[in-house]
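This week, look over our next protein:
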Amino acid sequence: MEYEMRAEYAGDASPREAGARFECWHMTRDHETTAMCGIDLDEAAATQTPDAWGTPEGQPFCHTCGALYLRQVI
């Protein structure tokens, strides 16, 4: 299975809105908008490859998504 990291924005703001503030990264199954923790994310949200997980570029990261991701890839 393929994965990608997708951004969550504060206050459920859309990344299309001016001043939308980044909150944290979540893990999703490739090209899906529902995070592994169950949060629905905007389809226009920033994404990055799962290679960024555990690096400074992938912080802050959703703790629940991290635990679920580890259970699936190990």
